[in-house]
Amino acid sequence: MGTETKLTGIGNLTLYKPDPFSYGQPAQQPEPPKDPNEWFVQRYPYAYQMHGSPFLLLHEPGNDTYKPIMPVTLNMPFFAQILGGRRDLGHHVIYFEAECSWYFKDWDGLYKITTSDKLINLYMALMMKCAQDMPNNIKNLNLVHEWRSDKVCKAIITRAKSVLVADSTFFSASSPHQRVKGPEIHERLLMKYVSEALSSEPGNLVMLKDAYEAYCRLVKRKELVPVKRSDFTAMVVPVIKDQFNVSLRNDLVVDGKSGQRGWKNVRLQAGPV
C-alpha cells in the first residue's frame, strides 16, 4: 500500500508515494491495488525509485460509497524504464546503441535480439491488464485508449532508447554479458584459445599459420565461421603479448626457410581446446 501526495494549489490531483515501512519489502499477502499507481509500483519499484509516480491522479467529487479517480497524466520516463524488465523475475532489456538494436536476456542467460514492436506490445498489454484489475471507481479511458495509441507508444519507445541505453562495452569480450553469435564471440574464443591451447616453453616455436589453423578448428567446432587470417593476427598478437610477454616475429628460421612469422618460447598444444 502507499500514500498519496497532494499537489498544493491544484485541487484533487495526486501523485503516488509508497509506504516507507513496506516499500521494497515483499508482502506476505499483498492487498489488491486501489489505483493504477499502486498496480505499477508494486511490480516495478525500481522504476518508481528512478522516475517517481507513474501517474498523476485526479480525485473527482464523489460520496461516501463512490469516489471516482481518473489518471490524467502519464510519467513517460517511468514507462520507458519498465520496458527494461522486472528485476524480481530476472528480466532485462537493453538498447544497444552501437547497433541501434534491442536485446532481451533469455532464460539461458544469453541476450537475444528483439524489436520495438514487441516492446510496444508488452507496454500495451500491461496498460490493459492494469485497467482490468482496477476497482470500479477508477476511470480507465486513458489507460485503455489514449495511452495505448500509436503516438504515445512511439514516444515511449523513443524515450526508452535513452533510459535503457547500453554502450559498446556491454558485449565486449571481457564483459559478463553475452549474446548469440555477436562479433565479440571470436574475441572470447580467442582468449580461451590462448589460455588453454598455448603454453610457455623456452626455445620452442609456434608458427602463425599453425596457430591460425588450430584456431579455425576450434571455431568450426563451435559452428561459427572463422575470421580471416589477417583479422586473427590483429586480435591474437596483443593477447599473446599480454599472456606470455612475447611478440610476433617475422624473422624465424624453420626447415631452412627464413623470414617465417610466429612466436618464440611458446608451445601449441596438440589436443583440442
Question: How would you summarize what this structure contains?
Answer:
The protein has nine helices and eleven strands. It is α+β, with helices and mostly antiparallel strands and 273 residues long. The protein has a four-stranded antiparallel sheet.
Describe this entry's structure for a reader:
This protein has helices at 36-43, 45-51, 76-82, 116-132, 141-144, 150-163, 185-197, 208-221, 229-244, and strands at residues 2-6, 13-18, 55-59, 69-74, 93-96, 101-105, 111-114, 165-166, 198-207, 249-254, 257-268. Strand 6 and strand 7 form a beta hairpin. By secondary structure, it is α+β, with helices and mostly antiparallel strands.
Percent of sequence in beta strands: 15-25%
Mean pLDDT over the full residue set: 88
Order of helices and strands: EEHHEEHEEEHHHEHEHHEE
Domain module count: 2
Number of strands: 11
Q: Look at the helices and sheets and give the structural class.
A: alpha+beta
Summarize the biggest pleated sheet.
4 strands, antiparallel
Could you give the order of strands across the largest sheet? 1-2-3-4
Proportion of residues in helical segments = 25-40%
Helix count, per DSSP? 9
From the alpha carbons, calculate the radius of gyration and give it in angstroms.
28 Å
What is the molecular shape? rod-shaped
